[in-house]
Specification:
GO terms for molecular function: DNA-binding transcription factor activity; transcription cis-regulatory region binding; zinc ion binding. Zn(2+) binds at residues 102, 105, 142, 145. This protein has helices spanning 3-20, 26-37, 44-54, 60-72, 114-126, 143-147; strands at residues 42-43, 76-79, 84-87, 97-102, 108-111, 135-140. Helices cover 49% and strands 18% of the residues. The two termini are 21 Å apart. The chain binds zinc ion (ZN) (2 copies).
Length: 148
Amino acid sequence: MNTKETQRLVTKAQQLCEQRGARLTPARREVFEILAAESGAVGAYDLLDKLKAAVPNAKPPTIYRALDFLQEQGFVHKITSSNSYVLCSHFDHHHPVQMLICERCGSVQEIQSDGVYNALLKQAEDQGFHVESQTIEAHGTCSNCRAA
Ligand SMILES: [Zn+2]
Ligand SMILES: [Zn+2]
């Protein structure tokens, strides 16, 4: 993502935080900016290394607290299978999360399919299971890598 786009996202996140009475502290903002500049998912320790460039005394709890906050606000999704984090591409509303993860280049694309969401919800309900959130991770090869 280019710098202008990153700036636009940061401004949007800041406005949402103000509306919600949440505080986008400098460390949280920095982590947000790092993720906004990446096209793929970033592991917590890589994030910490990058964060140290701006916040030299950053420690693992700094990054985990920032990531918890960003996830609560819906700005960031955690990719459980690789223990990494990616910026949400439409973070102004809560939504089911479906991610296409490229195994070659690490890019992550978010899709939103109500069909997938509803099918899973229905099957879960048939089992008497109440779903609170859904995160679906699909692994494969992205169009760029397939064309290469
Ligand atoms: Zn999202
Ligand atoms: Zn790829």
